[in-house]
Amino acid sequence: MLIISYIALCLLFIVYLYTLSVRIEGKIINVMVPYLIITVPTLYVFEGIFVYLSEVQNYTVEYLFFYTCYITYIASFVISYLYTQRKPIYNKSNTKNKPRYVFTSLLFTFLAFIIYLPVLMEFREYILSPRRIYELTRTGYGIYFYPSLMFSLVASICAFFTYKKSKLFCISIVLFNCILIFLHGNKGPIFSIFIAFILYLSYIENKKIKFMFLVKSFAVIAVIVTAFFA
């Protein structure tokens, strides 16, 4: 029970960090949202259920050490961000910098595709079964896998800044990178793109986004992505 109690205590501290973020930034959709959506369910809810149903009392020290390190990490990040980012964020989406975003989104999309192309060619018989590609490339393919994912994410984020100039271009770039990420057999980065877009709307476009809309949208995407890999 000590492990579960400590996990619950850490979860309460996460809730405190979120309320602190809301109070300081005045935004429901803030820097804590990605952590709340992606990490909290797996690390605090499902893991707590696992601990309750399993005999892991012999690993009490290990669990306490792990959660202490993790809570220290997220607390350091959030607090340092909240109390160092004092300059206001100005919306520059209508400036002459837009051509740069077009170029960088195209460049990173090209790099993401070229880097991952050797894997697609080697496992071309599994193109329609990307999860199988993921299973076969768990070791020895990191030099292709992770840079490609990173460039796809960066390309998608750059494309967000072209949305007002050309919705077709923005949607095309993001869609292409989503397809490329699907071919990696890893659904996690798809959620990252969605969350990045929500943060873009909140911080750059200053849109008021309701939390329940975020939850419902995330649930729909989760169902679609899970069905794709089922």
Automatic annotation (TrEMBL):
NCBIfam families: glyco_rpt_poly (TIGR04370)
Keywords, in A-Z order: Membrane, Transmembrane, Transmembrane helix
Source organism, top-level taxon: Bacteria
Residues passing through the membrane, by range: 6-24, 31-52, 64-83, 103-121, 141-161, 168-183, 189-204, 211-229
Protein name: O-antigen polymerase
Species of the source: Salmonella typhimurium
